[in-house]
C-alpha cells in the first residue's frame, strides 16, 4: 500500500471514529496532496513526493507553533506541535547520524574536498543521495561542516 493510500484509509477511519484532531490534520494533508495532484496532472503521487509534502506540513506547523509561543498562546502552540507529531508518524524512520557521517566521508573522499569552500558541493551530493529518506538538512549540514572545517 502506498503512503497516499494509507493516508486516505486513515482519513476514512478517523471520520468513522470521529477522532477530531487527527481528522482535521489529515484533511489538511489530503488537501495539499490533491493540490499536488492537480499541479502534476497525475492520478497518484510517488511516496517520496508524499513525504516531501508531509515534511512541508510538519515544518509549517513547527514554525506556527514557534510564533504562537512568542505571542504567549501556549494552547495553540501545543495544538500545532501535536499535529506535527501526528504527521511525523507517516514519515519513514530517520536516517542515523552514523550513516550520514559515513556518506559524508565517502562523498568528501570521492570529490577530493578539502576546505570549507567545498561545503556546498558536498552538501548537494549528500542530499541527493539521501533524497526520499527522512533526514534533516540541518543535521547533514552540521556533519559536513564539521568534517570540512
Describe the overall structure:
- With 149 residues, this protein is mainly α.
- It folds into two domains: 86 residues, Uncharacterised protein YqeY/AIM41, N-terminal domain (Hypothetical Protein Yqey, Chain: A, domain1, Orthogonal Bundle), CATH 1.10.1510; 52 residues, Arc Repressor Mutant, subunit A (Orthogonal Bundle), CATH 1.10.10.410.
- It is built from seven helices and no strands.
- Helix 1 runs antiparallel to helix 2 and helix 5 crosses helix 6.
- The longest helix has 24 residues.
- The radius of gyration is 18 Å and the shape is globular.
- It starts with a helix and ends with a helix.
- The model has no long low-confidence stretch (mean pLDDT 89).
What are the defining features of this structure?
7 helices, 2 domains, single chain, 149 residues, mainly alpha, Hypothetical Protein Yqey, Chain: A, domain1, Arc Repressor Mutant, subunit A
Amino acid at each position: 500500500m502506498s503512503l497516499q493510500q494509507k493516508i486516505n484509509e486513515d482519513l476514512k477511519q478517523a471520520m468513522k471514529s470521529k477522532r477530531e484532531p487527527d481528522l482535521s490534520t489529515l484533511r489538511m494533508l489530503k488537501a495539499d496532496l490533491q493540490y499536488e495532484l492537480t499541479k502534476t496532472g497525475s492520478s497518484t503521487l510517488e511516496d517520496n513526493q508524499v513525504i516531501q509534502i508531509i515534511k512541508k506540513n510538519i515544518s509549517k506547523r513547527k514554525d506556527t507553533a514557534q510564533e504562537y509561543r512568542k505571542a504567549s498562546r501556549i494552547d495553540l502552540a501545543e495544538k500545532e506541535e501535536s499535529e506535527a507529531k501526528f504527521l511525523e508518524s507517516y514519515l519513514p524512520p530517520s536516517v542515523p547520524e552514523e550513516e550520514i557521517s559515513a556518506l559524508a566521508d565517502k562523498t568528501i573522499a570521492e570529490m577530493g574536498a578539502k576546505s570549507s569552500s567545498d561545503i556546498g558541493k558536498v552538501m548537494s551530493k549528500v542530499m541527493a543521495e539521501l533524497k526520499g529518506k527522512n533526514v534533516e538538512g540541518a543535521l547533514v549540514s552540521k556533519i559536513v561542516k564539521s568534517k570540512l572545517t
